[in-house]
Every structure is written in structure tokens, then in C-alpha cells.
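Researcher: Sequence recovery benchmark, item below. Answer with residues only.
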């Protein structure tokens, strides 16, 4: 997992391109076969708690608009830290998850993104998702992930 920074947004744009999916809640997702045996990894940019999409960018253009502004020195429609908490990468399909150890996944992801993660390890997404839904999106997914890892 990576805490949000301009460098993370720019690396995502340069190395992964545009997200394959963008959500009204602000999440941005890339699915790529980056695993050592072609396993599908999901790269998910998690929105800040209580995310509100800024005026001037649609749901599907938000990442592109912010990344382009950062890359050209323009002022983005929203600073990355006001939009996203950070990035998580994980094996997309449960049947492949046990095939890659957390330390190896961190190495792979560092090679793909060009930036080492701030933390890595095994997490349980279910209680985090439940807490986020119960809080109607006013719960930081990334903070909960870092808490589970003790980071």
C-alpha cells in the first residue's frame, strides 16, 4: 500500500495508464496481469473518507484530469490528497491469492510502479468493507488497511 502523493498519481499514469474502471465513490481501478505467472493484480486507488467529486471532472475523467494537470504543472481540479487516501495492490482472484507471498508481491509491485510501498502484508478486506458501508463512505479504507498491518 502506498500513501497518496503526486508521485504515486504520476507513476500510475505513466506506468499503468488510465484506470479500467472509475467509481462514483472516487475509487479508481486497474486490472493487470503483473503476477509472476500472469496472475491478475488489482491496483485500487482508494478515495478519502467522505469523498466528493470536484466540479470540473466527471467520474470517468477524474484520474486523467488530475494526472494530466500534475504532469503539466497545471493546478488540478483537486489535490490528490483531497481525493484519494492511497493505493492498494493485491491479487484480484482469491484462487490465485495464495500463490504470491506478500513480500514477493511487494517486490513485483515496486518493479511495476517504480515506487516501493509504504506497507505490505496480508489484510482482511471484509471487516473494512463492512465498516465503510456502515459509515456510508465516511470511513478511511486505507487507514483501516494500515491499522490491520500495524503500520
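Model:
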Amino acid at each position: 500500500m502506498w500513501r497518496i502523493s503526486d508521485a504515486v498519481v504520476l507513476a500510475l499514469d505513466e506506468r499503468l495508464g488510465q484506470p479500467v474502471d472509475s467509481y462514483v465513490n472516487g475509487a479508481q481501478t486497474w486490472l493487470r496481469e503483473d503476477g509472476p505467472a500472469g496472475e491478475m493484480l488489482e491496483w485500487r486507488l482508494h478515495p478519502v473518507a467522505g469523498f466528493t467529486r470536484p466540479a470540473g471532472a466527471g467520474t470517468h475523467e477524474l484520474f486523467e484530469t488530475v494526472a494530466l494537470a500534475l504532469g503539466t504543472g497545471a493546478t488540478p481540479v483537486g489535490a490528490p490528497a483531497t481525493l484519494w487516501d492511497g493505493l492498494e495492490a493485491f491479487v484480484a482472484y482469491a484462487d490465485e491469492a495464495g500463490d504470491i507471498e506478500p513480500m514477493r508481491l511487494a517486490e513485483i509491485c515496486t518493479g511495476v510502479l517504480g515506487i516501493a510501498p509504504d506497507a505490505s502484508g496480508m489484510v482482511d478486506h471484509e471487516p473494512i468493507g463492512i465498516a465503510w458501508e456502515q459509515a456510508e463512505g465516511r470511513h478511511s479504507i486505507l487507514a483501516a488497511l494500515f491499522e490491520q498491518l500495524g503500520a
